[in-house]
Amino acid sequence: MTKPLLITDARLPDGTRVNVSIVDGRIEAIGPDVQAGQDATREHADGALLLPGFVEGHTHLDKTMWGMRWYRNEVGPKLTDRIENERRFRAESGHDAAAASLALSRAFLQMGTTRLRTHVDIDTSAGLKHLEGVQTTRDALRDVLDMQIVAFPQSGMLTRAGTVTLLDDALRAGADVLGALDPALIDGDPVASLNATFDLASRHQKPIDIHLHEPAEIGAFTMKLLLDRVEALGMQGRVVISHAFCLGALAARERDVLLERLAVLDVALCTTGPASVPVPPFAACIDKGVTLFGGNDGIRDTWNPFGSPDMLERAMFIAMRYDLRRDDAIAGAFDLVSGAAARGCGFADYGLFAGARADLVLVEAESVAHAVAVRPARKLVVSKGRVVARDGFFVLVLG
CATH number of the domain at 5-53+351-394, please? Predict the structure, then answer.
């Protein structure tokens, strides 16, 4: 049990000044006149903006070199170049997924992220080594960070013999979600690849999160096959398509047919808002009722020298990618790393209401749009009712 906490004089996004009473890790009450017992710890917000804890919907904790020496990137341009380069580097360097994921997870918490989904490579060279490392981090931070682990076949389901067996082992060992990758362009057989993916997910009763980089018509073909399986197997609400570049490259008529089917089958989309490739259309997704949420993808690894564990920054990049300028539109970009991400990943009891888990962030900002634009230091971060960061610094002592 955590000690009761009372946050006073916080400001909701609509401008209302409130107190927040937190008991046993949950919001007991929130409102202008809320009080707490004498045993409660008191934190004075002084009118700071109150936001729900942020949600990272798509990252790769096992790959990061956050806080480590600079990696000189000289990799070739193709996806397969990056895959092979990373595998070689990790094998030769002894890259430690446990230490790497712990460093980045602490940084996420410090910046206000209290729930995240991470893809972890399941590889015939490394076996379950990377999974075990990230599970060590999940266990260490269990009291303050909700982490979903996706068992991710970075080389595809079928290209390396033994991968499906390893994924089976990973799900049995505690991975929460089954990943997949480009059934047509990586595996070369979208029917067989998707059959293997859905068979494995059905056997373990696990949701699916598939990386789909495939462009235009190829991606649309794969997506149709995937949606057929979602419908046939009753997996509505249990599948995420990450990246989905094809939706940004199709003609509106073909795209909208797919979006309407995604909405009916409750298949969510995740985007990082990348600048160099097509992205799922923001307005059309919202209009059609598709859950669209956001994530960073890799942060400071062999694929990408960029990125940070600041979800306000990711919301800013998403807003810039979609040319969102109005305050209400920028607040919509923030939803991609908060409420929509919680829905897309299936994180329950999320938000600023009585009964929700007490995951809160205080920032000095006039509005949500202001917070996204300037990304101020986090005045206070509370996760599961515990103060984990103050004034931009991690303060929780891990026992």
Answer: 2.30.40.10
| Separation of alpha carbons 109 and 16, rounded Å | 26
Backbone φ, ψ for residue 293 (5° rounding): -135, 175
Q: What average pLDDT does range 69-97 have in this prediction?
A: 88
Tokens representing 119 are 């893809």
pTM above 0.70, yes or no: yes
Domain boundaries, the chain: 5-53+351-394, 54-345
The model's pLDDT over 222-257, given as tens digits with 9 standing for 90+, comes to 999 999 999 999 999 999 999 999 999 999 999 999
User: With respect to CATH, is domain 54-345 assigned 2.60.40.1180?
Assistant: no
Query: What span, in angstroms and rounded, lies between the C-alpha atoms of 153 and 100?
Result: 19
Q: Distance between CA atoms of 242 and 267, rounded to whole angstroms? A: 11
Cα separation of 386 and 393, whole Å?
A: 14
Please name the helix (run of DSSP H) or strand (run of DSSP E) that holds residue 369, with its range, or none: helix 368-374
Closest listed residue to residue 130, CA positions, set 177, 62, 61: 62
User: Cα separation of 142 and 126, whole Å?
Assistant: 25
- Chain segment 191-207, per-residue pLDDT in tens: 999 999 999 999 999 99
**CA distances to 2, 338, 386 from 358, in Å:** 11, 14, 8
